[in-house]
Input
Amino acid sequence: MAAPSPLPSQVATPIDAPLESDLRKCVHCGLCLNACPTYRELGVEMDSPRGRIYQMVAVSEGRSEVSPDYIEHIELCLACRACETACPSGVQYGRLIEGALAQIESSVQRSLPQRFLRWLAYDKVLRSPFMLGAAGLGLLFFRRSGLEAMMRNTGFLAGLGRIGDLAQLAPKAQAPFFFSSIGKVFPAEGETKHRVALMAGCMQNVFFSRLNEATVRVLRKNGCEVTVPAGQECCGALQVHAGLRAIGREQAKKNIVALASGNYDAIITNTAGCGSVLKEYPDLFEHDPEWHERARSFSNKMRDVSEFLASIELNTEFGTVERTVTYQDSCHLLHGQKIGKPPRSVIQAVPGVTLRELPFSEICCGSAGVYNIEHTDISMSLLEDKMRMIESTGADTIVTANPGCMLQLQAGTRRFSRPMPVMHVVELLDEAYNASGTPHRHNGGNASP
Output
């Protein structure tokens, strides 16, 4: 009996497969190997960028099928894009891996439960403020009722095996949620120098509400009138990275339309993974000239918040913040968007802060969207290495530029008994503005946004 057809909005099309012109750029030199986290972990050629591209070429030429073995090697990729930074030939590996994942979606019949869960998560929950809010309220009740503490203290969670391990990675909902700010305009403090729009995201509205609020405050301190446009939705990063480009196109169109009439100087995101996809919206419409042009106009205004702040005359009316920090590069900021210096420059602008460079900061922490859920063993091995490098710096605070990395690093401070705060770059700036000239000392405990 034939398997049921895919749910309508998940259907991928042949145009999403890796392009031959992109595949042919790889000269198989192998300079990407040491930059690849999975190759460093497993030492398997087929789990390196070069090996995966070889397999993509074989599928493209009809010499190989989209087999379970092929799927395993492709889905083990973190899509961190460190190989792009290492590649001397300019291979756009991010386009290739996303195309391969989309090709898998169009070629393989997943089981009905798998397709239902993917449809529920990617096409419903992440795109619905109501469903996200309901999930957040449920998690808040679980935490505040004492059930979570009881299950943890009695060892019940540990006894659940993998489910208990995943519970350690679950984000904590932050009430009040940020949804109430969508559709509002926040005036600049003092003279209005810039008009910007903030992409509020999806999970950020529930699990990183305080980060979104801090982002608005910091932008306002820097002469920005901040609009959080109504009509925006999830950016589509998780969907595109899962090979669900059809859903990603729907989301891109809605966001482009929602921001089209704003005439903003810049469109801001505080989430590096989202920013990478938002800047690459034109890639979703390569075969649609009208939407390609609209996507190009949109993406030309996209800025990561640290990128934007480093490009303007930064308001340096900071208080002193006594922290020794180390900065973990977000993969999609460093390798996807080629942004490494701006976050460091704004960190170093804060008086009292000492920045100590993190060895191998360019190597993925193991978060990679939902990779830490799907491939927990590899993710935790990468995280253990990362925490060891962090400890070597002697820093008392970890700073990064992506909420997913924050969750992973917070899990690392708990899992490997290295308690220290984990902050977003913009939260550090917000703390410095709040200090208002009074030296501020943190308590050194484990902090969440």
The first helix runs from residue 20 to 23. Strands lie at 185-186, 194-198, 224-227, 266-269, 302-304, 321-327, 353-355, 397-400, 422-424, 440-441.
